[in-house]
Write a structure and sequence with these properties.
It is a single chain. With 162 residues, the chain is mainly α. It has a single domain, classed as Paired amphipathic helix 2 (pah2 repeat). Helix content is 53%, strand content 7%. The strands form two sheets. The protein has a two-stranded antiparallel sheet with strand order 1-2. Strand 1 and strand 2 form a beta hairpin. Helix 2 runs antiparallel to helix 3 and helix 3 runs parallel beside helix 5. The N terminus is likely disordered. GO terms for molecular function: transcription corepressor activity.
Length: 162
């Protein structure tokens, strides 16, 4: 599968600190773009609301959320793994289904990150990706609810024994 495109359909590359940069190239209205931090930003067609600055901010906010959430990990392992997944996709070493599988696994306990990731995917895979990531998010939410119930049961059992 081809690499993600920047605004105007330009190919992107991952630079230092996982930042994405646009290369030179032709136009491509309506394509998704990659923004700083390695996240694809949904582009808005001509005359649409939002635009590149809104997309850039949303992508940057998403990456910042990931970076902050996993900041306490040694060497920011999850954040760096996320950037690596995107880099491999951009380098055409992974297809979009591999990316979805890896992101689903990486953010298995973070349904909000899974759901938000769908916004930044290319138009061609939006529906399929939304289905896959929403399913992963639902599974994550069910696991979280089950853990909370188990924790509540343990706490209730502990209170009942006192």
């Amino acid at each position: 599968m081809s690499s993600l495109s920047g605004a105007g359909g330009r190919p992107l590359s991952v630079g230092e600190e996982g930042r994405m940069g646009g290369g030179e190239g032709g136009g491509g209205e309506g394509k998704k773009s990659m923004a700083p931090g390695g996240v694809a930003g949904g582009s808005v067609g001509a005359g649409g609301a939002g635009g590149p600055l809104v997309e850039f901010k949303q992508a940057k906010d998403y990456v910042t959320t990931i970076k902050k959430r996993f900041a306490s990990e040694p060497h920011q392992a999850t954040y760096k793994a996320f950037l690596k997944i995107l880099h491999h996709y951009q380098e055409e070493q992974r297809n979009i289904m591999d990316v979805l599988e890896q992101v689903s696994s990486l953010f298995a306990d973070h349904p909000d990150l899974l759901k938000e990731f769908t916004y930044f995917l290319p138009d061609a895979v939006q529906e399929q990706a939304k289905e896959r990531l929403n399913r992963a998010a639902e599974e994550s939410e069910m696991r979280k609810a089950a853990r909370q119930q188990q924790q509540a049961a343990r706490m209730g059992g502990a209170w009942g024994k006192s």
